[in-house]
Design a protein that fits this description.
Number of domains: 1
Number of strands: 7
Shape: globular
Strand order of the largest sheet: 4-3-5-7-6
CATH architecture: 3-Layer(aba) Sandwich
Bound molecules: zinc ion
Order of helices and strands: HEEEHHEHEEHHEHHH
Radius of gyration: 18 Å
CATH class: Alpha Beta
Distance between the termini: 36 Å
CATH superfamily: Zn-dependent exopeptidases
Length: 267
């Protein structure tokens, strides 16, 4: 099957599982007016494992412990190409926005009753990924205990970037939260780049979008930045709620909706 057809089928499967509410979500379009292009790589997985409605969710900001060392995240098109000043000296613009989105998601999620918290490493540079204070170590421990771990990222600008989408954790069968986030943001192949360090440790990575237009100027513009951030947080939290069947039309409600009435079941 050619990759685009495979992607369309995978999205269709996701939409069917997710029910009518998620089918109306912008997940079927390859371009979103706020977050820009979605991943066009084929999604070769479906998340069906249900999680308890009160599953502890841990949110991480990608690259929060790798500034000034390998893997600091993208500096974004504004800084790298257009001569803008970094949002905050000493950290990449990606980390600046990862932190902003992670905090906004946790604030909104807590107000909506989710069991959700943010972990921020105490240092911006931790060279040893096995240090117990890194995102990976804290995320792996949370995933090993059965919690859901989401690390926020922005993708590279220009041809190096793929687009928005979820790269699912690989430690257990894919969950309905993974499914719901992929329906909202797009999806990546399960073994993207051979299996990244985070997913191998049980951490799902969410690429919000490429750090370029239209997303980056919407965030940087003081007139639109807070609304853009709020819209992103709303999209993430709604997807989490749908993935936990805390809303009608959630991922878990699909099979029930499709179940035949007892009277019509053949013998
Ligand atoms: Zn990143």
């Amino acid at each position: 099957m050619d990759p685009r057809r495979a992607a369309a089928v995978a999205l269709l499967v996701g939409a069917c599982l997710a029910g009518p509410a998620a089918a109306q979500a912008p997940g079927l379009s390859s371009f979103d007016p706020l977050t820009g292009p979605r991943s066009r790589l084929s999604r070769d997985w479906v998340g069906q494992r249900s999680l308890p409605a009160d599953v502890p969710i841990l949110v991480l900001a990608g690259h929060a412990d790798s500034q000034g060392i390998q893997g600091p995240g993208t500096s974004g098109e504004a800084v790298a190409r257009l001569g803008a000043s970094p949002m905050q000296p000493g950290i990449t613009d990606e980390l600046y926005w990862n932190l902003a989105v992670a905090r906004a998601v946790v604030d909104l999620g807590q107000r909506r009753g989710l069991t959700i918290r943010f972990y921020e490493p105490p240092l911006r540079s931790i060279a040893n990924s096995g240090d117990p204070r890194t995102n990976w170590s804290v995320g792996k421990a949370h995933a090993d205990r059965g919690g859901y771990v989401l690390e926020i990222h922005f993708d590279a600008y220009g041809p190096d970037g793929v687009g928005s989408g979820l790269i699912p954790a690989l430690h257990r069968p894919f969950s309905q939260i993974d499914e719901s986030l992929a329906a909202a943001f797009g999806g990546y192949p399960m073994w993207f780049r051979g299996g990244l360090g985070g997913p191998r440790r049980g951490i799902s990575l969410l690429e919000i979008g490429k750090l370029e237009a239209p997303l980056e100027p919407a965030l940087r513009n003081p007139a639109s930045g807070s609304a853009a951030l709020a819209a992103i947080a709303e999209r993430v939290v709604t997807a989490l709620e749908l993935g936990l069947s805390r809303r009608p039309g959630g991922v878990g409600s699909g099979p029930q909706a499709l179940r035949l009435p007892a009277s019509s079941a053949g013998e």
